[in-house]
Design a protein that fits this description.
The protein has about 375 residues and is an alpha/beta fold. It has helices spanning about 55-70, 80-90, 100-120, 125-130, 150-160, 175-185, 200-210, 225-235, 245-255, 270-285, 300-310, 355-360, and strands at about 5-15, 30-40, 45-50, 135-140, 165-170, 190, 215-220, 240, 260-265, 290, 315-320, 325, 340, 360-365. The protein has two domains: about 5-120 and about 355-365, 2-Layer Sandwich (Enolase-like, domain 1), CATH 3.30.390.10; about 125-340, Alpha-Beta Barrel (TIM Barrel). About 40% of the residues lie in helices and about 20% in strands. Strands 4, 5, 6, 7, 8, 9, 10, 11 and 13 form a nine-stranded mixed sheet that branches. Helix 7 (about 200-210) links the parallel strand 6 and strand 7 (about 215-220). The structure holds magnesium ion.
């Protein structure tokens, strides 16, 4: 089986979150940016993958089209994609082991795993190992509101929908306290500050994290590769981190430094399913929990559910708590119901884009 055609598709789907959109991304964040990878084989199989693209869509799409695709066109496919992933990493390593090039490789890796699973007529998770769950608890990943009243409203909404866990992207103690007030004692709360704090500020904030009984503090310090200070925080309060790390090697450094209680690989950034699986194996060997990063809705969302199917412990699925203008997945994305998401069971990753949604939101078609 050979690769017969490759297409890289960009789409932008607006969303509403009820907030200002200011705080985490370089500009106002009000749309889901997609770079989808479509790989077709000479046997007629079509695999779909996704590259991380928020605020970097054009750059990632260019890398996917001009750096990765030419290395794969016409290639014979191995039974599973690890050898091709390794080759892509070797050929492209001088362009950076973290960031745009790895995001592009991640999308192709997912598409190739999709094909590998379809070729065997099995859901992706069946190729990765034994299934230990057929559904997973999700947490409502709230955007940064920076406003106690709005945080209370959306925490209450999520609780009413049956979520048992929420994640805040707040950096101010007053807003965190408002969230706990709205959630009551029974809802698990984690706090993600996206590297907003210095090590000193992070240390000063530990009492409020304890006060609201947070499950973990996510990316407490800048820069994310400052694993020395992250480890110091982790000794005092559980740290989650990893969305800004690529490959199993960066995770191994973080885990070996004691810098993380919850490792958070992102399948569309870390190097795809191949590297995600490597991270899980290393984390399991070292007794560190994996808590995937997945605030997106394309093939990466579906692939993460397959990865969660076999993950030991009590991992949670991150569901970005927003309202997109359309669901990009044909047949619908498996969304949380009463805070729980089913693991897909159809062959492959289980994602294909809805042609009508692509027709409306695709760029450069
Ligand atoms: Mg995060």
């Amino acid at each position: 089986m050979k690769i017969a055609a490759i297409e890289v598709i960009e789409a932008v789907v607006p969303f509403d979150d009820g907030g200002s959109g200011i705080g985490i991304t370089p500009g106002r964040w009000d749309s889901l940016e997609f770079v989808l990878v479509r790989v077709e084989t000479d046997t007629g199989l079509i695999g779909w993958g996704e590259c991380f693209a928020y605020s970097c869509r054009a750059a990632v799409a260019t890398a996917a089209r001009t750096m990765v695709a030419p290395l794969l066109e016409g290639r014979e496919l191995p039974a599973t994609p690890e050898p091709l992933n390794l080759e892509l990493q070797k050929r492209l390593h001088i362009f950076g082991r973290y960031g745009i090039a790895m995001f592009a490789i991640s999308g192709f890796d997912i598409a190739l795993w999709d094909i590998a699973a379809q070729a065997q007529g099995k859901p992706l998770h069946a190729l990765l190992g034994p299934q230990v769950r057929n559904e997973v608890s999700a947490y409502a990943s709230l955007v940064r509101y920076g406003d106690p009243a709005l945080v209370k409203k959306y925490c209450s909404d999520a609780k009413a929908l049956g979520y048992r866990f929420v994640k805040l992207h707040e950096i101010e103690p007053a807003v965190m306290r408002a969230a706990r007030e709205a959630c009551g004692p029974e809802i698990g709360i984690s706090v993600d500050v996206n590297c907003a704090w210095s090590p000193d500020v992070a240390r000063e904030r530990i009492p409020v994290l304890q006060e609201i009984d947070a499950m973990w503090i996510e990316e407490p310090v800048f820069p994310p590769e400052d694993i020395f200070n992250q480890a110091a925080i982790n000794r005092e309060f559980p740290v989650g981190a990893g969305e800004n790390a690529c490959t199993r090697y960066e995770f191994a450094r973080m885990i070996d430094a004691g810098a993380v209680r919850f490792a958070q690989p992102s399948v569309i950034k870390v190097g795809g399913i191949t590297e995600f699986v490597g991270v899980c194996a290393y984390a399991a060997a070292k007794g560190v929990a994996v808590m995937p990063h997945t605030p997106y809705f394309g093939p990466g969302y579906f692939a993460t559910l397959h990865l969660l199917a076999g993950l030991r412990g009590e991992p949670l699925f991150e569901h970005l708590y927003i309202r997109p203008a359309a669901d990009i997945a044909l047949g619908g994305t498996p969304l949380p119901v009463q805070g729980t998401v089913p693991i897909p069971s159809s062959p492959g990753v289980g994602f294909a884009p809805d042609p009508a949604v692509l027709a409306r939101f695709r760029l450069n078609a």
